[in-house]
Design brief:
Elements (H helix, E strand, L loop, with lengths): L1 E9 L2 E6 L2 E9 L2 H10 L4 E6 H6 L5 H10 L3 E5 L5 H9 L4 E4 L1 H5 L1 H11 L3 E8 L2 E4 L4 E6 H10 L4 E6 L11 H11 L2 E5 L5 H5 L8 E4 L1 H5 L4 H9 L1
Parallel strand pairs: 1-4, 1-12, 4-5, 5-6, 6-7, 7-10, 10-11, 11-12
Antiparallel strand pairs: 1-2, 2-3, 7-8, 8-9
Helix pairs in contact: 1-3, 7-8
């Protein structure tokens, strides 16, 4: 598995939310670039970034910080949050982002996914955020009647290769990943699934090995110190 340290940006700072609740945030740093440099020094190859303000406002808000990370580190960066158009996608790729994640836009504009995948191929991923098995959008504020697995199948049919699958109930709780949900998504879609939400220790990463997921995102656990990046990387490679 590829391990992705996470940097969530809100108000230009590095934050983490609990279960996607914008009123339950912890600030872990004033400089996203310095945080990215830290993860690079400690062995990361990829970085997962989310523009939380962008997700709420449906436009890029922290794009400047993400561009700085791309320019000032050698990390491969995947990013999502507020990306709603081909122009948004092109702007992100132009600033050095390796992979763009479509979330709400993928639910509301499937034609955008089709067009983006046709033009950019594997550089386009789709983020599926699920609450009780149903897709949530707009910074997790709206829960739809669309089942996450069925939506994943639709994305596969459009040519999407990579899904970032987040279980909102476990996100930020440090109690372990929803292993069954991740395994189901891999099995039903056949896509490269990156698991997100709930990693609290190295054993939580190891628990995903039998699921077939291609990667795992670790956020709060790194910032709270319940796992080191070194140990997380080792667990992902086992």
């Amino acid at each position: 598995m590829i391990l992705y340290p996470a940097i969530d940006l809100k108000g230009g700072k590095c934050v983490r939310l609990i279960q996607g609740d914008f009123d339950r945030e912890s600030v872990y740093g004033d400089s996203p670039v310095e945080m990215a440099r830290r993860w690079e020094r400690e062995g990361a190859v990829w970085l997962h970034t989310v523009d939380l303000d962008g997700a709420l406002e449906a436009k890029s808000v922290n794009g400047g910080a993400i561009a700085q990370i791309c320019a000032q580190t050698g990390l491969k960066v995947q990013t999502g949050g507020g990306i709603r158009s081909m122009q948004n996608i092109e702007d992100k790729l132009a600033c050095g982002v390796s992979r763009v994640i479509l979330g709400t836009a993928a639910v509301e504009k499937e034609e955008l996914v089709r067009e983006a995948v046709l033009k950019y191929g594997s550089r386009i991923a789709v983020g599926i955020d699920a609450k009780g098995g149903f897709v949530a959008t707009a910074g997790w504020k709206n829960v739809t009647t669309l089942r996450a697995v069925e939506f994943g199948k639709r994305m596969a049919a459009l040519g999407v290769e990579t899904l970032i699958y987040t279980d909102i109930a476990t996100d930020g709780m440090l109690g372990g990943c929803n292993v069954a949900a991740m395994e189901e998504m891999v099995r039903e879609t056949g896509l490269a699934v990156i698991a997100s939400g709930g990693i609290g220790k190295a054993e939580d990463i190891r628990s995903l090995h039998g699921t077939g997921v291609a990667g795992v995102i670790v956020g709060k656990a790194l910032y709270e110190g319940t796992v080191t990046l070194k140990d997380a990387l080792c667990a992902a490679k086992e």
